Amino acid sequence: MTEIDVHRNAGTEPPLPQSVTGRFLWQQLPYVVALVLAIAGVAYTNVSHQPLVGYWEFLALAICVVCIMTKWPETQGRDTRLRLIWTQALHWIAVLVTMNIMLASGVQQLLPTPATGLVLLTLLALGTFLAGVSLLSLQISFLGLAMGVAVPAISWLKQSVFFFLLGAVLLIGLGITFWLRRDRQPATSPMNSEMEA
């Protein structure tokens, strides 16, 4: 190979770190999307004050599919893949049954609607974490942990909004008070200050 061919080939090959980073982000996309959808479901429930029954069921089924697809390339043989599908299906059916128990009318009377969204997110987080543990998948376990951490974070943020609002009103009030005081003070001109001296 000549030196010109080496330079030509070096210029046409894409840099390796960009493709590795892009591939890594592409592989993490389903987990990030599931986390965003779960938090969006709680936010919508808190704003609309209506539980999203079908939404949580869809999200649980979507995470079931993500769990199966995560381990699918590692499983070899028809029996192993069927066992993967059945164990995940039974796991997520149990999660769905528990979610529907929480959405039953008798239980709903005991819980306010915003709390229902947090309870469903907690159940989804627990189911996701346990699925990650049983599959030995760090990404799925982390997704479950992130959903679980989001529950107290959302609750704290909801309670803190009132304090943030009070703090903002206090700062605005102090700002207006100092601004009005500054405007009420007589302006001293340089001529007046020289005459007083």
From TrEMBL:
Keywords from the UniProt entry: Membrane, Transmembrane, Transmembrane helix
Residue stretches spanning the membrane: 29-47, 53-72, 84-103, 115-133, 140-157, 163-180
Source organism superkingdom: Bacteria
Record protein name field: Uncharacterized protein
Source organism per UniProt: Bradyrhizobium guangzhouense
